[in-house]
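Both lines are retained for reference:
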Amino acid sequence: MFRILTAIALVAALQGCATSNEVYLADGSKGYNIRCGGAVMNYGACLDKAGELCGPGGYLVVNQQGDAVPFSMASGGFSANPQSAVGSFHAQSGTIVTRNLFIKCGKNGTDSLGQAQNRAVTQAPTNADLNAAVDTAIAKIPELAYWRDHDVTRWNRAADLDIQLRQRPEYQNVPFEVRFKTIVQMIDDEDKQKNKVH
């Protein structure tokens, strides 16, 4: 039993931070494959890593992939002698979550990685400016602020939907607050659909 719990803890720890490596994308240009899998992370961790890698020049999300794979393990044993019998059975199950984000640095993904990293900070808002704008928009939407602080499932779903919306051309220049309100409405609609099924 201890070995099973240790193995699960090790897998969870290994999935605890976003990692990346430089890759060649389908068009032959250089980009990054960012991995942010695990039950305690979401695509927000991948986006943070993308911002860290590309800096103020920004980035283009070329592709995203993810999967949730259920697993289960069982172990047991039985021993007997003329005086007694002893048996035990242990079962463990869960889900392994994988998330990959493929990005290209630079506005619209046109700059090389080196150009994006060397660009002057004055050409784009800093990460601190963007974080402040995001926090302000979240504070204006009570449901989203509540999810961030108290409901990790809905908060992670909101982060995943945000990634999807930002890839759609009609949401490219939409203010944070408008996009976030759309996400809250989408999640509320999903919840209503689930309640109809039950």
In short: The chain is about 45% helix and 30% strand. Confidence is low (pLDDT under 50) at residues 10-15, 109-124.
